[in-house]
Specification:
By secondary structure, the protein is an all-alpha fold. The chain is built from two helices and no strands.
Length: 76
């Protein structure tokens, strides 16, 4: 991230949502590159990540949460 590393932190110590997302992508990338036995258990749909070219903070948005079923179970 170079001189824009501050964009990934909320207070200089704790990651904000952007920093957490980028760090998670780095971890997944590392697992895919170095631990193939573990990588086979990862989802395949996230695109590969190049740590040298992180997502631009200016265009990054929090990915939407998966759909949640709010149907009340029987008996409640």
């Amino acid at each position: 991230m170079g001189d824009r590393i501050g964009a990934a932190f909320q207070d200089g110590t704790h990651h904000n949502a952007y920093g957490s997302y980028e760090l998670a992508r780095c971890v997944v990338h590392g697992i895919r590159e170095t631990v193939p036995e573990l990588a086979k258990h990862l989802r395949s749909d996230p695109p590969d990540f190049n740590p040298a070219e992180p997502d631009a903070i200016e265009t990054w948005r929090i990915p939407p949460s998966p759909d949640v079923d709010t149907t009340k179970p029987d008996g409640n």
